[in-house]
Amino acid sequence: MLKYNQKIINALKKCGIKKNDVLLLHSDISKLGRQEGTLKHQLENFLHSIKALVGKNGTIVVPAFYFEYSRHSKAFKVPGSPVSKELGLFPSFFCKQKKVLRSLNPLTSVAALGKKAKYICGNNEVSAYGVDSPFDKLTKLKAKMAFVGVDCRAMNYLHYVEYMVGVPHVYNKLFSTNIYIHNKKVNLPVCNQVRYLDFSVNYDRNGNTKKFEKAGLIKKVKFEKDYIRVTSVDKIFNFVKKKLKKNFYYLLKHKPKFKKINIPLI
């Protein structure tokens, strides 16, 4: 029997999540403390709680990346391809639910359930971060982001901001491995933003939570031994955009070691 996790619902409400929200959810339920029931029941109850919170007119979105596409040149199939294990248990469980839609870019794929799911994950678009990509649509919808059992190190949305500003330490790479929807090959190009590997381009992911909390962008509530954190894409976009315009390397540990006359320093 499905149950509500009222503690999680209350914590997210305190952080500003409400009915009809579009919610980009990052989670690790193993960090939520001891819970009753089997692992399957815990996953079901967690999803049941989030659905109850945003309501029938709300939308839940989760990262559903498939890193094996670039690592091992494995074709991406919707439905069919699993979510990479690094993302934890909930995204994999979520993608198997009825009426969940999944976007087509393997390395930046998201899955969505709810009123805006078709708009976000409409399967005629393969852009990673460009116009009409899921991250572009989440921005237009002024979605909120929640971090449950994880912190802002999980915020992949930052790469969308980098893409829109146009930082020099990443470039667009064209992939040739096939993608399929319902076993039919999709004849659209797959392009992803990737970092240059030869110039010490290292992201300061551990520092993101502290940066954004200090700037007042995060609402958080104590939960078990950690916090549940919530922000919105427009707050993050506007803040990080300003920082990147002044310093392209704001999200990095240090300035890349570019060499003159070599790409990208011409």
Topology:
Layout: H1 6-14, E1 22-27, H2 39-54, E2 59-63, H3 68-71, E3 76-78, H4 89-95, E4 101-102, E5 110-114, H5 117-121, H6 134-140, E6 144-148, H7 157-165, E7 170-175, E8 179-181, E9 184-185, E10 190-195, H8 208-214, E11 219-223, E12 226-232, H9 233-246
Parallel strand pairs: 1-2, 1-6, 3-8
Antiparallel strand pairs: 2-5, 4-5, 6-12, 7-10, 8-9, 11-12
Helix pairs in contact: 1-2, 7-9
Span of the ends, CA to CA: 63 Å
Number of helices: 9
Total beta strands: 12
- Provide the helix percentage: 25-40%
**Order of helices and strands, N to C?**
HEHEHEHEEHHEHEEEEHEEH
Mean pLDDT: 94
Estimated structural class: alpha/beta
Overall 3D form: globular
Trace the largest sheet across and list its strands: 4-5-2-1-6-12-11
Portion of residues in beta strands equals 15-25%
What does this structure look like?
The longest helix is centred in the first third of the chain and has 16 residues, at 39-54. The radius of gyration is 19 Å and the shape is globular. The chain has 9 helices and 12 strands. The strands form 3 sheets. A 7-stranded mixed sheet has the order 4-5-2-1-6-12-11. It has a 3-stranded mixed sheet with strand order 3-8-9, with no helix packed on it. It is of the alpha/beta class and 266 residues long. The chain starts with 5 loop residues before the first helix and ends in a 20-residue tail after the last helix. α1 packs parallel to α2 (39-54).
